[in-house]
Design brief:
Elements: H1 3-13, H2 35-47, H3 52-67, H4 74-89, E1 104-109, H5 116-129, E2 134-139, H6 146-157, E3 161-162, H7 170-183, E4 188-193, H8 201-217, E5 224-230, H9 235-248, E6 252-256, H10 266-274, E7 278-282, E8 290-292, H11 295-303
Parallel strand pairs: 1-4, 1-5, 2-3, 2-4, 5-6, 6-7
Antiparallel strand pairs: 7-8
Helix pairs in contact: 1-11, 2-3, 3-4, 4-11, 5-6, 7-8, 9-10
Length: 304
């Protein structure tokens, strides 16, 4: 991310003191860091939804660093945490290459209310701004306002929209959209779908049908199954990711509403459990608030 993006991420991710490094100076006794400090760090990670595995890993690495005499003051502790966070998140730092196929089909999925349609609109805006041709497809035919919301984003991005009447078969809408994208030699097809709970087997089967139908035209489609998650939902976001991935083979994640939580630790849990690429993080309503994921810069922002 550019420096301006890092500044935006820092400003939005931690409104006030960082949950991870708040008042770290008080953790130091006269003889340095002790087990109380390790337990405090572990507790903070657990309270921030980072998960047991991450909390235990960070705690053990801190114990080793203390025994080696590497952590003598608050600055050294912050440096160590930055190192550990970056190391933990780096495997998920895999940018989305929409030039890998033509048209490159992005299928957006997720539960209701996570900001899926808005996220897809922001991505369309980003890609048209990069000079790519984009076609948007309104595959959410259940929510009355979904097509209109996507239409607004299409106009904002200067991209055409394929939509049908409310209640139309989503697979049919997206099949037609892929045909149109191929006919127009479009770079990227961005396909919205209806929000659905990960526990609704019938609706998850509908998404599998969408995949099958798209593959009749292009065996490689969708080239990206992009799962949008609301970071404020904590461990529930992890359960959603596990279920959607098992059903559809998710290829990338977007974590939204990180500006609405003082924690952000769920990113650590998701990184460990799934090891899926985190393509973008959302920290606000503006298109510029959807940022490509960068492990080192995200670690910097978490630390405040």
């Amino acid at each position: 991310m550019a420096e301006t993006s890092l500044a935006r991420l820092r400003a939005r991710l931690n409104r006030g003191e960082s949950w991870l490094t708040y008042d770290v100076g008080r953790l130091f006794a006269r003889d340095g860091l002790g087990e109380d400090a390790v337990e405090e760090l572990e507790t903070r990670l657990l309270q921030a939804d980072a998960g047991v595995e991450a909390a235990q890993h960070f705690a053990e690495r801190l114990r080793i660093a203390i025994r080696q005499g590497r952590v003598r003051d608050a600055a050294a502790l912050r440096a160590l945490l930055r190192e550990l966070l970056t190391e933990w998140l780096r495997p998920c730092e895999r940018p989305l290459d929409v030039g890998a196929a033509r048209p490159f089909v992005v299928l957006g999925v997720g539960v209701n209310g996570v900001g899926k349609t808005t996220t897809l609109g922001k991505l369309a805006h980003r890609w048209t701004g990069e000079g790519r041709s984009v076609l948007l497809a309104a595959g959410d035919t259940f929510r009355a306002a979904a097509a209109e919301q996507l239409r607004e984003w299409a106009q904002r991005a200067g991209a055409p929209l394929v939509a049908q009447a409310a209640g139309a078969d989503a697979a049919s809408v997206l099949f037609d959209a892929l045909q149109a994208a191929r006919a127009r030699d479009t770079d990227v097809l961005v396909a919205d779908t209806a929000g659905r709970l990960h526990t609704q087997a019938q609706l998850m089967d509908e998404l599998k049908k969408v995949q099958r139908v798209l593959r009749k035209l292009d065996p490689g489609a969708p080239h990206e199954v992009l799962l949008v998650l609301d970071a404020t939902t904590g461990q529930n976001a992890l359960r959603q990711a596990e279920t959607f991935h098992a059903a559809l083979g998710v290829t990338g994640l977007v974590l939204t509403k990180l500006d609405g939580t003082a924690k952000g630790g769920i990113v650590l849990a998701i990184a460990h459990k799934l090891a899926l690429p985190i393509r973008y993080v959302g920290v606000g309503e503006d298109p510029a608030d959807l940022l490509p994921f960068d492990a080192a810069q995200f670690a910097d922002a978490l630390l405040g």
